[in-house]
């Protein structure tokens, strides 16, 4: 009931991060374009394969954006849909199953609802069947006004590969839709080409594959390179349509593309053993935030997808002080270096807890558990609080009682 929420609320109040004055509202009245980059891990950024850059466009783009290089995905079995859940709610997805399927009937206080209340036309764009991951139902619960899905795109054999429509035509046709949207709009675009099993048409292979015994890893670099090119064309399209200067652009990797089953090839590529520490560090995904008129900056705070909602809403000038959320604003000075992965691993400024051991990030060796211990309880507690909210559908009580409304206290 509501009393359970009160305890959780205290925890959340205590960890609230005050927004940075300069960044709060910097995107006010601008459009918000979010791009979920399929299976993109951070280890390819600024790296080469066979002497060629894997992400030449993103390497440039991060130079003129805020780039977070210690940002972790926090997804589990719900994959893309888990990342979407984190983005919209700043709650953790579930450890089993996909919350998009299991709890789509819950009451949520989503980022999308906040954007609606602040005059945004809220949309999602993904050239796939609308019911995949139960998106059509869940997007209604989260408050999206319009979901551009398969019927909104011209999908042909020629412009498809692997799971469906290629990223380049997807972006091209999406820009056409954006031109028609009432302004300001927000959109979440979900890419698809860089998806397992990472297959491409010959003409889209812009670099040679990696050479190991693992075809999945070998091809991954090529499909990442393709997505990078598609993103480059997308930004060009936004510039040509005049939307670029009027939009905040947020790009993030949704989850890993290379699972632990590929440690042998990954170890060959990285030139070191994939220990539980290295494996955890591979869960970093790029987060790139482009604000027109702002210079590029790399921010190395430890953070995760749980932080997206408050960070983005604050940029758009929308307060989150009263929200039930576990993340914090990444531009806040108060943001702590701490990320909890859904399976209980966690990362601090200097340590990683993984494989039931504590690891020193600098030496990459195992260290005394006493360095991780102080964070361990918090990690467990935070995941449990988040689970309680979902399993108990607790946000419905929050709506009803409004016990934190200042006027009523
Ligand atoms: C499907 C796309 C891919 O619509 O989101 O799903 P994933 O397997 O990455 O969760
Ligand atoms: Mn995905």
- Gyration radius (Cα, Å) is 21 Å
User: What molecules are bound to this protein?
Assistant: (2R)-2,3-dihydroxypropyl phosphate, manganese (II) ion
Spans of at least 5 consecutive residues whose pLDDT stays below 50 are none
What kind of oligomer do you see? single chain
* Separate helix tally: 13
Largest sheet: 8 strands, mixed
Cα end-to-end separation: 20 Å
Q: Which class of secondary structure composition applies to the elements?
A: alpha/beta
What is the number of strand segments?
19
Global morphology: globular
- Percentage of residues in strands: 15-25%
On the 0-100 scale, what is the average pLDDT? 96
Helix content percent band:
25-40%
Q: Which sequence of strands runs across the widest sheet?
A: 7-6-10-1-11-12-4-13
Name a few traits of the molecule.
409 residues, alpha/beta, eight-stranded mixed β-sheet, five-stranded antiparallel β-sheet, 13 helices, 19 strands, 16% strand, binds (2R)-2,3-dihydroxypropyl phosphate, binds manganese (II) ion
Please give a quick description of this structure:
The chain is of the alpha/beta class.
List the helices and strands and how they pair.
Layout: H1 2-14, E1 31-37, E2 48-49, E3 52-53, H2 56-61, E4 66-68, E5 71-72, H3 79-89, H4 99-102, H5 111-117, E6 121-125, H6 135-142, E7 146-148, E8 160-161, E9 164-165, H7 167-180, E10 185-190, H8 215-240, E11 247-253, H9 263-270, H10 276-281, E12 287-290, E13 297-299, E14 303-304, H11 308-315, E15 338-340, E16 346-348, E17 351-354, E18 357-360, E19 366-367, H12 373-391, H13 395-401
Parallel strand pairs: 1-10, 1-11, 4-13, 5-14, 6-7, 6-10
Antiparallel strand pairs: 2-3, 4-12, 8-9, 11-12, 15-16, 16-17, 17-18, 18-19
Helix pairs in contact: 7-8
The structure holds (2R)-2,3-dihydroxypropyl phosphate (GP9) and manganese (II) ion.
(2R)-2,3-dihydroxypropyl phosphate binds next to helix 3.
